């Protein structure tokens, strides 16, 4: 998905690094992670406390631009909540049951405290934020400081109150408000009970998913420690009462409140919120089990250790590369591991011994780089995700393309979970994966049209099998051309696994269908920008069911023309979130044929340069990623390397606005990480494009074998002038192919790249390039 606004705002992270330096330690990868990157201008990154792939995600929630809960703007904070998604391009997700601390009520009158979100919202103190993996800390203008950390299924908040509350006539007597609210105000029903003896608040509510259909029910259990309870009750709109339970439907602002005596120690108290999608009782047991003693430092330490463990599979020798690059790199890896979320044991929809992951948000975005990155860095988690996808197929009848909060999300193009499965298969992920059922799921996508293809599977399969393209339909949001090229690629992926599994007939069938992109290629189509011919001929174009060409301006839906008109909206056009000029490059299965179709290597390189330099390509959307590396197929691998340097750090960097589009669960971050390691993949194939790492060397320990693969640059210059590979040596022998296979990472070894300031002959011969089906 794409975000709409972009501007630059910088933030000083130096202070944190300098303080590390002052303590005499070299910064570790963990120290380089800045969770606030991408928290303004549409990045929608969740910057709060979470474990890798954890369900509990705690952060401050703001009133505006709150897709990830928090934003680095001036918007006031209305609460702290425990479930979030990161980087969504759809609506704001989750954010259920926020809590909000008052230091006291004026004149000690509970009626004088603010309850609904819009009256209690309070600005932050500028500069008070301290965010790092597993921890978020912010002070409100009320001088209440809120620190938070998490375990898998519970959030822990430590509130520090001012000795003298800032509101007039108020003495310290904390009142915590709990609200039956979510970020998008979507509640359809909720209830809660507050225990007048302990203060414990339990309850649940039913809410809408942010980019999908249906509803989900979440439960919470809030417990308090560190101060003596005075009284408790519920509230509706502006009015608190001493009732102890509440049932509400839509609209009303409503929740519970609990009031305490002044905390005896450091004016601090703790709030532990266990969460569950099964029941309030399970929410309580989650909290009790994971944080029996409310140990803030213990939970924080455990989450810091969990993150360090995730990062330590990579070792960098920076070779003088800037802190901007180091921070962008490690933060990108960090963001790739926030979601999908491990909801195993919390699935109310079916009983299974398989893992259950949620927040595939969305696979259209994540198949391109997030999942391949996880396969490299955390194959264990990626294996569990693949198993969960197959189990979703088992119980829902289809693989998802997008899924959040136990609901089916909107499909944007093809059935791209196919690519995720095949990528995993080709890279030898196997532990516990039922590939027989996995294959069945792929064939189902390719053959069986679901009742509602807007939320799973593929639509138009009759046409796909008879006229061999997805036709445009009058007055419909068909996305016919982008679906055609994605279905073609999905079928190619299925062909690859069919061959491996010995299904020779399927292999032939899907290989044939993978050529269907040719049926929407119109050889004499031209493209103009503001009436000026671009000089290129031959573009993808829509066709009617009868074969007659329809027409769509090849520039439309690029930043140059009606940029934001191609979402899931009526008259969204025939290419989803992008121009036909750009989609014309999307033939990852057969670049050789595409290059021939577009006039050969030289013409192709010229057109690809034009794509990058004319303003047609938008890097804030994931379809831009592969376009950086397509030079490899035209015998110019050096141009891929040079091109990647034009985007990092100018569009991907360490500022709070440092990603060009919404992060989509870490997609932008995974692009940065893979590009800087010099191994961007062609997802769904056993292909990594070789470009020089942005650091002197990079080593990855394989989670599959325990072996170490190292890519090292000779003649490395940190400024990035020597970006052209002159020669390569793999484990002591000359290596002329411009791509690697996953076996390099599994078997370990050393790839030594010698760099220079000019393009060389290395990797430029036809036989050096990555595989293609080849011109037929
Ligand atoms: C915080 O900084 C912003 C500018 O980034 C400014 O607009 C706002 O007024 C400041 N707030 C306070 C309380 O100083
Ligand atoms: C504070 O208390 C004084 C004296 O009781 C009273 O006159 C005043 O209205 C109170 N102010 C507020 C804001 O409640
Ligand atoms: C949630 O969705 C189910 C299934 O569509 C429906 O029966 C139920 O009424 C919905 N519940 C609420 C509270 O909206
Ligand atoms: C924090 O984790 C480190 C590393 O595992 C351990 O040595 C230390 O004892 C832990 N400290 C606490 C307070 O749990
Ligand atoms: C990966 O799997 C393929 C196909 O099953 C097999 O040929 C290959 O040896 C495996 N590679 C490794 C490194 O295990
Ligand atoms: C392309 O060729 C067809 C005839 O084959 C013609 O009708 C059409 O106008 C041409 N389109 C362009 C854009 O030149
Ligand atoms: C094909 O269908 C389109 C759209 O309905 C129509 O405009 C066109 O005239 C048809 N072409 C032929 C040859 O019938
Ligand atoms: C672009 O948007 C404008 C205004 O919404 C509309 O009038 C125009 O037809 C659109 N152009 C294209 C090529 O879609
Ligand atoms: C950082 O990235 C943002 C988003 O792409 C971009 O607008 C900004 O210009 C970049 N800043 C720097 C200093 O390169």
Give a description of the structure.
The protein has 776 residues and is an alpha+beta fold. Among the domains are: 49-309, Distorted Sandwich (Beta-galactosidase, Chain A, domain 5), CATH 2.70.98; 360-412 and 419-453, Up-down Bundle (Glutathione S-transferase Yfyf (Class Pi), Chain A, domain 2), CATH 1.20.1050; 460-618, alpha-1,2-mannosidases domains (Glycosyl hydrolase family fold, Up-down Bundle). The chain contains 20 helices and 32 strands. A 9-stranded antiparallel beta sheet has the order 5-6-7-8-17-12-11-10-15. Strand 6 and strand 7 (145-150) form a beta hairpin. The radius of gyration is 27 Å and the shape is globular. The protein starts with 13 loop residues before the first helix and ends in a 20-residue tail after the last strand. Residues 3-22 have low confidence and may be disordered. The structure holds 2-acetamido-2-deoxy-beta-D-glucopyranose (9 copies). Residues 6, 8, 649-651, 653, 655, 657-660 line the site of one 2-acetamido-2-deoxy-beta-D-glucopyranose.
